[in-house]
Amino acid sequence: MNAQFKRGIIELCVLSQLVKEDMYGYMVINNVSKHLDVNDNTIYPILRRLTQDGHFETYLQESDLGAPRKYYRMTKSGFEHYLNLRDEWDQFITGVYEILNEGGKNSEAVFKRFKDRIE
Question: What is the dihedral of CA 35, 40, 43, 48, to 10 degrees?
Fold first, then answer.
C-alpha cells in the first residue's frame, strides 16, 4: 500500500481499536496488521503520543505468559478525538470517492473512456 495513504490514517485505525476494548500494544499491532502493512515501529510511537496527549491511559495487567502487559484504555478525550477524526475522515473519503467515481468505477469503463478520447 502507498506509504502516503497509510501515514494519514494509521492514527484513526489505532483509535478505532481502542474504542472497542482495552488492548496491549501487540494486540493493536496484530489487529491493524491484518488489514494494513504496519509494525511496532509504526504503532508504538502513535500509542505513546496519544497517551501523552491524554487520549489514552495505561495500566499493567498480569499475564500468564511472563511479565505484566501494559494495556491502553481510551479516555473521554480520546473518544472525542476519535469521533472528530472519524467525522473528518468520512467527509474526506466521501469527497475522494465522488472525484474518483467521475473517472469511472471499473477498469473496463475507465479504459473505454480513455480509448475513446485518444482515438
Answer: 160
Separation between Cα atoms, residue 79 and residue 49, nearest integer Å: 15
State the angle between helix axes of 10-20 and 76-102 in degrees (0 to 180), rounded to the nearest 10: 130
- Whether the pLDDT of residue 109 is over 80: the answer is no
For the chain, which residues make up each domain, given as ranges?
Answer: 3-118
Other C-beta atoms lying within 10 Å of the C-beta of residue 91: 10
User: Rounded to two decimals, what is the model's pTM?
Assistant: 0.81
Write out pLDDT tens, residues 19-54: 999 999 999 999 999 999 898 898 999 999 999 999
What 8-state DSSP symbol labels residue 102? H
Class of domain 3-118: mainly alpha
- Distance (Å, rounded) from C-alpha 29 to C-alpha 23? 10
